[in-house]
Amino acid sequence: MASTKRILITGGAGFIGSHVVRYFVNAAPHYQIINLDALTYAGNLENLKDIQDKPNYTFVKGDICDAALVNAIFQEHAIDAVIHLAAESHVDRSISNPLAFVQTNVMGTATLLNAARSAWHGNYDGKLFYHVSTDEVYGSLGETGFFYETTAYDPRSPYSASKAASDHLVMAFYHTYHMPVVISNCSNNYGPNHFPEKLIPLSINNIIQNKPLPIYGKGENVRDWLYVIDHASAIFTIFEKGRIGETYNIGGHNEWKNIDLIHLLCKIMDKKLNREAGSSEKLITYVTDRAGHDLRYAIDATKLKDELGWMPSLQFEEGLEKTVDWYLENQEWLNHVTSGSYASYYETQYHNR
Ligand code: NAD
Ligand code: DAU
User: Fold this and answer.
1) Cβ(56)–Cβ(25) below 8 Å
2) I need a surface site. Which of 71, 75, 169, 245 has the fewest CB within 10 A?
3) Is 136 a residue of the active site?
4) How far apart are CA 301 and CA 292, in angstroms?
5) Is the distance from CB of 268 to CB of 324 less than 8 angstroms?
6) Mean pLDDT of 55-74
7) Catalytic: 224?
8) What would be the CATH architecture of the domain defined by 6-193+225-254+293-315?
């Protein structure tokens, strides 16, 4: 019989976190999932409606920086493992408010690690601290080359610097206290429940509303896109089979220049919305570039494939169509998350750009 584990997942009401929570709750009924999330602007319990009443799922609202709360959760739920996703995740917000990123991503991670250290007290049998990180810690590539697990860290935005710091803290707890840890560094995700501050969902929302599509600089920056449920399945694989103390890169071998991606999205949306071919492309608007804009990310995920047998399941065109369908069928979700503070965020971020 599969062994029981009580797993604390942080940030489980966010974009990737909600897919990870769902994946674990459904794939592993013998695991108890405790989801700790502060429900910031990016966290939304609507993302988890379909699993909220499952017997192996519990939600706790709270901040990962609150040491008393985090310690109490470890005690009350006898936590065996942590899958840590809670973070401030948007590069543009890190440029306007870097300290919020240091607080959540660095102090929050340190708080969780320290709580695990004191709860597990050197008895690490069956324990695991799994830290979910990003390929942005490796910096920016030129026209060629890939990020490997051995690539030196070279973060260039306050967001990526704070994630790099959190990765270093995780490895410091491994080396210093022998805490069993694993880290994965993933490329850009896309899919359902993605908050419309990021390129793909923002563009889908703007096309629906016939609003300009803001493309930073010349649109020549390259990102390597992975469907979010493939990321969740990779996290499950690494959680089950990954080697302690290791880092695994996760990616889709799916590089797109921003402008090419937006052209493809426009074509898909014209069809789905029964609009004349070419009408969404007219919304494309080149705007001032992001400060310190990384040119290119590209992940080499050979280690994950060769060691643990993980591969992405979806081709990009198929994933993008599924994503568009989800947004068109869930406009109420889109309306909820774009009400309130979204309008003032959008105004500050894009006005006069
Ligand atoms: P997100 O912004 O959609 O969600 C973050 C979640 O964390 C939200 O639910 C939010 O409420 C919660 N949160 C924020 N601060 C918190 C705090 N102090 N205490 C408790 N909860 C808090 O982020 P995402 O895009 O789903 O990213 C999740 C993780 O994956 C992050 O660690 C991010 O660095 C990493 N990652 C993201 C991508 C991507 O493409 N989005 C790629 C690779 C890695
Ligand atoms: O690589 C993984 C990272 O991917 C994650 O760690 C981050 O949490 C996640 O937000 C994402 O970072 P990016 O900065 O790559 O994603 P974003 O969607 O913000 O931007 C994608 C590209 O599109 C980037 O080159 C900037 C550009 N862009 C973005 C926005 C929001 C535009 O041209 N216009 C826009 O309005």
Assistant:
1) yes
2) 75
3) yes
4) 26
5) yes
6) 98
7) no
8) 3-Layer(aba) Sandwich (3.40)
How far is it, in rounded angstroms, from Cα 70 to Cα 116?
A: 9
Cα(166) to centroid(ligand 1), Å:
13
Mutate to test the pocket of ligand 2, among 95, 188, 222, 263 (most ligand atoms within 8 A of CB): 188
Sign of CA dihedral 119, 244, 101, 19: negative
DSSP string, 173-187: HHHHH---EEEEEE-
User: b/e string for 185-200 if b means 16 or more Cβ within 10 A?
Assistant: bbbbbbbbbbbbbbbb
The whole-number average pLDDT for the span 168-190 is: 98
pLDDT tens profile 271-327: 999 999 999 999 999 999 999 999 999 999 999 999 999 999 999 999 999 999 999
Q: Read off the pLDDT band of 188 (50, 70, 90).
A: very high
**Which residues does 300 contact at the CB level (< 8 Å), separation at least 6?**
146, 147, 148, 249, 251
- Do the beta carbons of residue 288 and residue 150 sit within 8 Å? no
Instruction: Write a three-state SS string for 28-50.
Output: CCCEEEEEEECCCCCCCHHHHHH
Question: What 8-state DSSP symbol labels residue 143?
Answer: S
Distance CA 330, CA 334 (A): 7
Could you give the maximum distance between any two Cα atoms of the chain, in Å? 64
**Average pLDDT value for residue range 211-223:** 98
Beta-strand ranges (E) seen in the chain are 5-10, 31-37, 57-61, 81-84, 128-134, 181-186, 188-190, 213-216, 222-227, 247-250, 255-257, 284-287
pLDDT at 1: 63
pLDDT at 2: 75
Confidence band, pLDDT 50/70/90 cuts, at residue 75:
very high
| 153 annotated active-site | no
Q: Which residue has the tokens 């010349």?
A: 218
| Residue minimizing CA distance to atom 5 of ligand 1 | 14
CB 247 within 8 A of CB 278: no
Atom from ligand 2 closest to the CA of residue 92: 19
